[in-house]
Write a structure and sequence with these properties.
about 160 residues, TIM Barrel
């Protein structure tokens, strides 16, 4: 995966932009780790990025009726317009404690419904250790339709 994809994990936007430009010369697909909302918007406006990874892993408090999932309708529309997928790191979810896993899963459910409504692509990262059936049933239990789950597998790196 490292030869075809480059995962960029940095909070400094200028350094991320320089690294995106450098990796684009090597013809690699670029995955950027999500940070705060302003950072995510700037990344989604960059057409050279292929995937925004795990926007749900921010340490913010959720509201009473809505999760602070790192995505909103505007960000999903920008991602769809620029053909950027929203990535879910499957291995990171498995390694969490129960309470944190419940929070993250509820945020993922919200992100899936947003992406489904807007039409933004979703894909999974680090799925090598799990069977296709396990991941398929995982996404079905989170509220993905069968069609959307098949698209996730077709778009996966």
């Amino acid at each position: 995966m490292e030869n075809l994809y480059k995962i960029i994990n940095n909070k400094n936007l200028d350094l991320v932009r320089r690294e995106i430009k450098r990796e684009k010369e090597f013809q690699r697909k670029i995955i950027v780790q999500a940070q705060d909302t302003k950072f995510n918007r700037k990344i989604l406006e960059n057409k050279d990025v292929n995937v925004l990874l795990s926007p749900e892993f921010r340490n913010l408090n959720d509201r009473l009726k809505q999760r602070n999932s790192g995505l909103n309708e505007i960000l999903c529309r920008i991602a769809k317009k620029n053909n950027i997928s929203i990535g879910i790191d499957f291995k990171k979810i498995i390694d969490l404690q129960k309470k944190d896993k419940a929070k993250i899963l509820s945020r993922i459910i919200q992100n899936i419904s947003l992406c489904k409504r807007i039409g933004t692509k979703i894909l999974i990262i680090d799925k090598e250790k799990f069977s296709k059936q396990e991941i398929f049933s995982f996404f079905l239990s989170l509220g993905c339709s069968t069609k959307k789950t098949k698209e996730i597998f077709l778009n996966a790196p």
